[in-house]
């Protein structure tokens, strides 16, 4: 079982280097991170975009383009479609966001002709390594689904559990986070958490332990869980923190990074292949860990949901 993000690099190295199609590749941060992954033997790069602009960026940051395949694309929309098309045609294993908007890339990912759409909800899964914590924490969904429905939340749980299993957690412990440990009549989210918890208990959400509604304290602290009268496999030892809406997830994720100094990685799950989304605010290490996570998931057989 992976307990530190550095171990992701080792896991990603165990398989064949994964072919990553970088959409709109004229981005110094994304290209630099990809080049590090190539140097570690984690990835092979396919650079999609304006060859002239890619060449300028490569020269600026000292990257040898002889290691890469360059696929011309006249604009961001074409670059996104070309990169996604390389994955759907089997010429690449996963796609990564370069210098283009997330909405353009997602439109290509969901394209009916060349996209990577499945019956599952597309969702963001983040992994955080916190000092003093002996396990990685999976956070979902902090970046994709604004106010997911009950059915979408069930799919989001499956996505996160699939990735957790890929990293060696055979039966992930999922906490359904709310502001209260109790079902409150005036708080629909606590009722929905209880419904999802029952579905999980019946095996309808795959091989997981699940409990909710549950506060963050009860999910992470055995002492708090005990004081709040919670017992079971999840209380105080959750692996997956499932939030009910994007604001809660984003604040939780960013709070761990900026207040607790967490190391993080993240990918989009639920498509036919992982989608690597990094932002300029991400640290260099976070970008590399996200690539390693995507490569590890793409190279493993993670079909069991």
Can you walk me through this structure?
With 305 residues, the protein is α/β, with parallel strands linked by helices. The chain folds into 2 domains: 6-117 and 271-299, Rossmann fold (3-Layer(aba) Sandwich); 123-258, Isopropylmalate Dehydrogenase (3-Layer(aba) Sandwich), CATH 3.40.718. It has helices spanning 6-13, 28-39, 51-61, 76-88, 102-109, 150-166, 188-201, 216-220, 222-227, 246-258, 284-299; strands at residues 18-23, 43-49, 69-72, 94-97, 123-129, 137-140, 173-177, 209-214, 240-242, 263-269, 275-276. The strands form 2 sheets. A 6-stranded mixed beta sheet has the order 8-7-9-6-5-10, sandwiched between helices. Strands 3-2-1-4-11 form a 5-stranded parallel beta sheet, sandwiched between helices. α2 (28-39) crosses α11. 53% of the residues are buried.
Pick out the low-confidence regions.
none
List the domain count as a whole number: 2
Range of strand content: 15-25%
Strand order of the largest sheet: 8-7-9-6-5-10
State the shape.
elongated
CATH architecture label name of the largest domain: 3-Layer(aba) Sandwich
**Oligomerization state:** single chain
In whole angstroms, how far apart are the ends?
A: 18 Å
In short:
The protein has 305 residues and is α/β, with parallel strands linked by helices.
List the helices and strands and how they pair.
Blueprint: H1 6-13, E1 18-23, H2 28-39, E2 43-49, H3 51-61, E3 69-72, H4 76-88, E4 94-97, H5 102-109, E5 123-129, E6 137-140, H6 150-166, E7 173-177, H7 188-201, E8 209-214, H8 216-220, H9 222-227, E9 240-242, H10 246-258, E10 263-269, E11 275-276, H11 284-299
Parallel strand pairs: 1-2, 1-4, 2-3, 4-11, 6-9, 7-8, 7-9
Antiparallel strand pairs: 5-6, 5-10
Helix pairs in contact: 1-11, 2-11, 4-5
